[in-house]
Automatic annotation (TrEMBL):
Protein name as annotated: Enoyl-CoA hydratase/isomerase family protein
Superkingdom per UniProt: Eukaryota
Gene Ontology BP annotations: fatty acid beta-oxidation
Family annotation (PANTHER family): DELTA(3,5)-DELTA(2,4)-DIENOYL-COA ISOMERASE, MITOCHONDRIAL, ENOYL-COA HYDRATASE
Keywords, in A-Z order: Acetylation, Fatty acid metabolism, Isomerase, Lipid metabolism, Peroxisome
Cellular component GO terms held in the UniProt record: mitochondrion; peroxisome
Classification of source organism: Eukaryota, Fungi, Dikarya, Ascomycota, Pezizomycotina
InterPro entries in alphabetical order: ClpP/crotonase-like_dom_sf (IPR029045), Ech1-like (IPR045002), Enoyl-CoA_hydra/iso (IPR001753), Enoyl-CoA_hydra_C (IPR014748)
Protein source organism: Petromyces alliaceus (Aspergillus alliaceus)
KW Lipid metabolism (keyword) present: yes
Annotated Pfam families: ECH_1 (PF00378)
């Protein structure tokens, strides 16, 4: 059973809080009749969802799924996106139009980055069609799981453009195999669950969507039992170290923990371990 929260009254995203899983939020993309394809209002709303969850002290881990049985998301609603991209905004002058497009892309990128920027770990459970923007979304998440019947594709070259919202920057760092990323990004070929598991794009493959969602919620529950200070710090330090040298990462970690390690959560965790009980931590 899950409860709805009136503080999350969104149109394209359903946010639930499973009663049996404290501190876990389940976010569902809610445009199943259109295979959860994204229009501008959706990615703008997505930013608000994850910014709000990031600062919500009653949330410690997040699961992201897509409504319906056919698709996590089939990517962008191409018709709507092309209308915006080729509109008359910016006028006929090429320079001014390019500035308009650049601002539009930057805004779009920021909406996606809200997932990565979110202080809480985000687990993405994908099923069915997971094309284009779905790969961007999942690459910005912390952990990726999928169903056996999933179909992945970095689809943008099939619509005559280079992907520009984040996948070309993030996917190589997720899988650590630039040759494979170039292959799937240049060809837009479909790849499945086993290949995604083999290259490290996903952590686990489930037989059904229900099993994938349940597995994601179970993992989120496990994370939510840990110190929120430790979990937030671990995500922050991993993301920072990914984008910097080892020496820079070590220095940042030392500065970060010089403050964070003073938390009472360390004592709480140690004592609960000795007493063989699940620790209870204050909200953050």
């Amino acid at each position: 059973m899950a409860t709805m929260n009136t503080r999350y009254p969104y149109k394209y995203f359903t946010v639930r809080f499973p009663i049996e899983r404290p501190y876990v939020a389940h976010v569902e993309i809610n445009r199943a009749d259109k295979l959860n394809t994204f229009i501008e209002a959706m990615w703008l709303e997505m930013r608000h969802v994850f910014d709000q969850l990031s600062s919500d002290s009653s949330v410690r881990a997040i699961v992201l799924t897509g409504a319906g049985n056919r698709a996590f998301s089939a990517g962008l609603d191409v018709k709507q996106a092309s209308t915006e991209l080729f509109s008359d905004k910016g006028g006929s002058d090429a320079a001014r139009k390019s500035f308009h497009i650049r601002r539009y892309i930057h805004q779009f990128q920021e909406c996606l980055t809200a997932i990565e920027r979110c202080e809480k770990p985000v687990i993405c459970a994908m099923h069915g069609f997971s094309y284009g923007f779905a790969i961007d979304i999942s690459a910005a998440a912390d952990i990726r799981l999928c169903t056996r019947d999933v179909q992945f594709s970095v689809k943008e070259v099939d619509i005559g453009m280079a992907a520009d919202i984040g996948v070309l920057s993030r996917l190589p760092k997720v899988v650590g195999n630039i040759g494979w990323v170039k292959e799937v990004a240049l060809s837009a070929r479909i790849f499945g669950a086993e290949e995604a598991l083999q290259v490290g794009f996903v952590n686990t493959v489930y037989d059904t969507k229900q099993a994938a969602v349940e597995g994601s919620l179970e993992l989120a529950s496990l994370i939510a039992q840990k110190s929120p200070v430790a979990v937030l710090g671990t995500k922050e330090l991993l993301n920072y170290s990914r984008d910097h040298s080892i020496q820079e990462g070590l220095r940042y970690t030392a500065v970060w923990n010089s403050g964070a390690i003073q938390t009472g959560d360390v004592r709480t965790a140690l004592m609960s371990g000795l007493e063989k009980r699940i620790p209870k931590f204050e909200k953050l």
